[in-house]
Write a structure and sequence with these properties.
- By secondary structure, the protein is of the alpha/beta class.
- It has 8 helices and 11 strands.
- The protein has one domain (64-199, 215-285): Rossmann fold (3-Layer(aba) Sandwich), CATH 3.40.50.150.
- It has helices spanning 46-57, 67-88, 106-113, 125-133, 168-178, 195-200, 221-231, 253-272; strands at residues 19-26, 29-34, 40-41, 96-100, 117-122, 138-140, 153-159, 179-190, 217-218, 233-241, 278-285.
- The longest helix has 22 residues, at 67-88.
- The relative contact order is 0.15.
């Protein structure tokens, strides 16, 4: 594919270095890699990017979990909040949190039950309507458009957000403005330096913009560290988890169950070696 019409032409992290092709092949063309920070990004064009974002997120249902998944969300939220309190050395009821890209507010709904004062920001209008009807404080728009006051929040969460961004540096700098001194950004996104990517390459569902709207920018530990340095943050905690060896719709049921069992065995060593497919990163604002 000719990169002329791609929505990303240079490293989104801001590295002024050469860009090379990779062997990760997608319908839009191969993923590109920055030779300095190793960040990967798509050759998707602007029209496909915009339409995939609109189709994926602008719904009343948003990302609210099903009843059977709510227990998992509560467990994971409690784990994240424990890490946050340890880093900040604060009680939950003294923490103010902003969830960026919060959809209809499932995370802030659960976090508030643990005593955290929560707000959200979401560009999808229908998701904001649903959140507000549920009694949640969610601002409509992109973070940079909301004109929130300086040094207001202890925590800003970016869960499954930065892989959609053409300009993550701009967002991180705005987060820095909004955070109190020593405030924290918590990021969840895919890890391209994972066993899953090494095995599945372009077959990994996470890279498929048709199935995961707006996924154009893909991080590894080196690129998230570079982004932190460019925007006034440092990494306080970094870990990864999860391994995928295949997708359910690409193999027989028996093969899938066998490979799923094997991938479950790999979860622990993947976590120990930081080779899991999903990363969670805690970045502290540098004064």
């Amino acid at each position: 594919m000719n990169n002329t019409f791609s929505c990303l032409k240079n490293c989104p992290i801001g590295c002024n270095e050469a860009i090379i092709d990779t062997d990760i092949i997608l319908p839009e063309g191969c993923l590109k890699r920055c030779i300095k920070c190793f960040h990967l990004f798509s050759q998707c064009d602007e029209q496909k990017y915009a339409s995939s974002m609109e189709e994926e997120f602008n719904t009343l249902e948003g990302t609210w979990p099903s009843p059977k998944n709510m227990a998992r969300l509560k467990h994971r939220t409690q784990k994240t909040l424990k890490i946050i309190t340890n880093i900040l050395n604060k009680n939950l009821n003294s923490i103010k949190l902003l969830d960026v890209g919060c959809s209809n507010g499932a995370f802030i709904f659960v976090a508030s039950k643990f005593g955290v004062e929560c707000e959200g920001v979401e560009p999808a209008k229908n998701a904001v309507i649903a959140a507000n009807k549920a009694g949640l404080k969610v601002h409509h728009g992109y973070l940079e458009q909301c004109n929130l006051p300086n040094k207001t929040y202890d925590i800003i969460t970016l869960f499954e957000v930065i892989e959609h961004l053409k300009k993550p540096v701009k967002l991180f700098k705005e987060c820095g403005r909004l955070l109190k001194d020593n405030g924290i950004i918590v990021v969840r996104t895919a890890n391209t330096d994972s066993w899953t990517v090494k095995i599945l390459k372009g077959k990994w569902h996470y890279f498929n913009i048709s199935n995961h709207g707006g996924h154009i920018s893909f991080f590894c530990k080196n690129s998230i560290t570079t982004l932190a340095k460019h925007t006034g943050f440092r990494i306080e905690k970094y870990y990864t988890h999860g391994v995928s060896l295949c997708h359910k719709d690409s193999v027989s049921y028996i093969t899938f169950r066998f490979l799923k069992s094997f991938s479950d065995l790999l979860n622990f060593p993947a976590k120990l070696t930081e080779n899991g497919e999903e990363m969670e990163v805690y970045l502290k604002k540098i004064q």
